[in-house]
Amino acid sequence: MARNNGLDTPRETRRSLRANYDPEAFGRLSERFARFLGTARFLVYMTVFVISWIAWNVLAPTSLRWDKYPFIFLTLILSLQASYAAPLILLAQNRQADRDRIALNEDRARGDRNIADTEYLTRELASLRIALGDVSTRDYIRNELEDFAKEIVQELRKPESDSK
To answer: Which residue spans traverse the membrane (predicted)?
Structure first.
């Protein structure tokens, strides 16, 4: 049976043993986690947890203590939490840096468009000023008509003053 490898036929779906995850969803989760780690609420929860752990393992009856004085299990839990928190925080920072880079590029493009628009409007305004240099304005015509009316009035008064 000949196998068709053309682009017009879909590939067969293959099952994989690798875990399938959505990187965008994982990124959003890491950002929420990093945002939570940077709050006072997290510090209060962590402080209460550590104080409770130490108090229980110091003050509880010996038979109920699960982590004796050097608190090795507590140290392990805190190290494990830190070993997961650091990469998640870095992932969140990288995603924020990517968003900042995209926003910077968009701002730069918007600034370039604004400069181009401003230059275009400046050229248009200059061409209008040049074109208006050849056009008579209302004030210019009014002044010319007033001057012309004064000249006519003076011409009309001249014969009267000549006859006297």
So the answer is: 42-59, 71-92
Q: 70 by DSSP, 3-state: which?
A: coil
The predicted-structure confidence for 12-44, as pLDDT tens digits, reads as follows 777 777 777 788 888 898 899 889 988 999 999
pTM score over 0.85: no
Q: Which of 74, 81, 79, 77 is nearest to 58 (CA)?
A: 74
Q: pLDDT-derived band of residue 160, with 50, 70 and 90 as boundaries?
A: low
- Give the domain ranges of the chain: 23-117
- Could you tell me the CA-to-CA distances from 83 to 79, 116, 156, 158 in Å, in that order? 6, 50, 105, 108
CB within 8 Å of 64: residues ≥ 6 apart: 56
Chain-centroid distance, C-alpha 22: 24
Question: What's the alpha-carbon Rg for the chain, to the nearest Å?
Answer: 42
CA torsion sign for 124, 125, 131, 137 is: positive
Q: What is the pLDDT of residue 164?
A: 56
Residue partners of 42: CB distance under 8 A and separation at least 6 = 36
Supply the DSSP string of 132-153, one letter for each residue.
HHTS--HHHHHHHHHHHHHHHH
